[in-house]
Amino acid sequence: MSQNRTDIESDIHPIIASRWSPRAFDQERCVETEKLLSCIEAARWSSSCFGDEPWRFIVAEKASNPNGWQQMLATLAEKNQLWAQHAPVLILACAANNFSQNGKPNRWGQYDTGQAMMALALQATSTGLITHSMGGFDPAAAVATFNITDDFTPMSVTAVGYPGAIETLDEGFRTTETTPRKRKPISEIAFTTWNRSWNSEEQI
Q1: Does pTM top 0.85 for this prediction?
Q2: CA distance 185 to 3
Q3: Where are the beta strands (DSSP E) in 35-139?
Q4: Which of 88, 104, 157, 195 has the greatest number of beta carbons closer than 10 A?
Q5: Digits of tens for pLDDT over the chain (204 positions)?
Q6: How many C-alpha atoms does 147 have within 13 Å on its Cβ side?
């Protein structure tokens, strides 16, 4: 799917290794309903604190709901609109502020919603789709446009579609699109105590 290969320190599933966040979408190809449904189904089965399922998704398909899609696009930061305008599907993810079972604050709701979106992204990757999640959008505009109640917080907008030609992107995006991905080494993110590196060999 991409020439942006990730240097890995240990074997991981190919779907995880190949998932990334491109900006070049094929604007001529719609996402089949069955595939989009499978992505949302994957998100539905994500884990959540107390099984509360705090996520809600507003799905805007360009082909079947052009007005809603255009409204969703308008909430994005101008720079994101430059490439997201070619994505056939935009999904707004919202997280519940409180538990549905008792109304108490759910500080894990946003975390769980993020997990659900990763499940969606991995399912999309497994079907040949690409996704790109954005924090660059106007939450207040999203709330007003889509009548989101105040017990939910808009978290991200994710573009979904098929890979497109890099040449369709503005020149400023092309370098980012072709630059190999990098990640911090495991030694900088996994610890036995804060800032003391975890080493799997030492644990055996």
Answers
A1: yes
A2: 21
A3: 55-61, 89-96, 130-134
A4: 157
A5: 444 555 788 899 999 999 999 999 999 999 999 999 999 999 999 999 999 999 999 999 999 999 999 999 999 999 999 999 999 999 999 999 999 999 999 999 999 999 999 999 999 999 999 999 999 999 999 999 999 999 999 999 999 999 999 999 998 899 999 888 889 999 999 999 998 999 755 544
A6: 1
Per-residue tokens: 11: 């074997």
Torsion sign over Cα 37, 113, 164, 145: positive
Spatial neighbors of 109 by CB under 8 A, at least 6 apart, are 49, 52, 54, 95, 96, 97, 98, 153
What's the CATH fold of domain 14-166?
Answer: NADH Oxidase (3.40.109)
Q: What are phi and psi of 155, to 5 degrees?
A: -110, -40
Give the DSSP H or E segment for 116.
Answer: helix 109-126
- Per domain, the residue ranges of the chain are 14-166
Give rounded-to-5 percent helix, strand, coil for the chain: 40, 20, 40
Count other Cβ atoms within 10 Å, centred on residue 73.
19
